[in-house]
Specification:
The protein has a six-stranded parallel sheet with strand order 1-6-5-2-3-4, sandwiched between helices. It has a single domain, classed as Ureohydrolase domain (Arginase, Chain A), CATH 3.40.800.10. 37% of the residues lie in helices and 14% in strands. Strand 3, helix 4 and strand 4 form a beta-alpha-beta unit. Helix 5 runs parallel beside helix 6 and helix 6 packs parallel to helix 7. The structure holds manganese (II) ion. Manganese (II) ion binds next to loops.
């Protein structure tokens, strides 16, 4: 029988308040200061004992928002992306949007990385791929996620970890998320991601979330932004639904 529970977005929990903490200042032409501002903003949210959910920026922001956890207990990064984002540098730039997982891998408080969904990677260099293997990143390619399903895919994440989940909108198929700069055909469907995120919420303590790379100029119909909003709300709802269940 169809279980309607699976369709519910758990946003009716009275105890949960979603607060818009505003924008982090972007300093034009100074990426490093912009990232420092984002890091500072997330540190403030952690001090306030709330779950930071970061929307937007390109994927470079994740190296800053993960850095903000340096005074917390160690974390594991779960990364949904069409790409590895493990590039050491491009033209001397080591803080670009292709490098957040590489920079995260260098942080002492990051215990590991699981990347779900990479596919169609014409632009990955062998050197960066080998570095990702040498680091010990858990990689579950999209086609494996699709054949084994959400439950088995989430089993690649080491048990008992506190997880920070970073969602790149380019992990979705461009037919439903064309409003991003690095589209890659063959990506996730809405339900594949929804099921993965719900499984993560069930099995792990989620300590931080970001959803990045939506590009409004490439999204004239707004469908990509809507998908990002829907996905974020689904996930936040699942996280707090599971927290309430655990609390009893
Ligand atoms: Mn990315």
């Amino acid at each position: 029988m169809f279980d309607f529970e699976d369709e519910i977005t758990y946003l009716t929990i009275d105890e949960v308040r979603i607060v818009d903490a505003g924008d982090s200042d972007v300093i034009y032409a100074d990426t490093k200061r912009s990232l420092a501002n984002a890091e500072q903003a997330v540190r403030g949210l952690l001090d306030a004992k709330v779950l930071p959910c970061i929307l937007g920026g390109d994927h470079a922001i994740t190296m800053a928002t993960i850095a903000a956890f340096s005074n917390e207990k160690p974390i594991h990064i779960v990364h949904l992306d069409a790409h590895f984002d493990f590039i050491d540098g491009r033209n001397g730039i080591t803080w670009g949007h292709g490098s957040p997982m590489r920079r995260a891998s260098e942080m002492a408080h990051v215990k590991g990385i699981t990347t779900l969904g990479p596919h169609n990677m014409a632009a990955v260099s062998r050197k960066d791929w080998e570095a990702s293997r040498a680091y010990g990143a858990h990689v579950v390619p999209l086609r494996l996620v699709r054949t084994q399903g959400a439950v088995a895919s989430v089993e690649h994440i080491p048990q008992g970890e506190r997880v920070y989940v970073s969602i790149d909108i380019d992990s979705f198929d461009p037919s439903i998320a064309s409003g991003t700069a690095t589209i890659s055909h063959g990506g996730f469907t809405y339900y594949e991601v929804k099921d993965i995120l719900r499984e993560i919420a069930k099995r792990f303590e989620v300590v931080g979330v970001d959803l990045v790379e939506v590009s409004p100029p490439y999204d004239p119909s707004g469908v990509t932004a809507l998908l990002a909003a829907r996905t974020s709300l689904d996930f936040i709802g699942s996280i707090f639904h599971e927290r309430m269940k655990r609390r009893g």
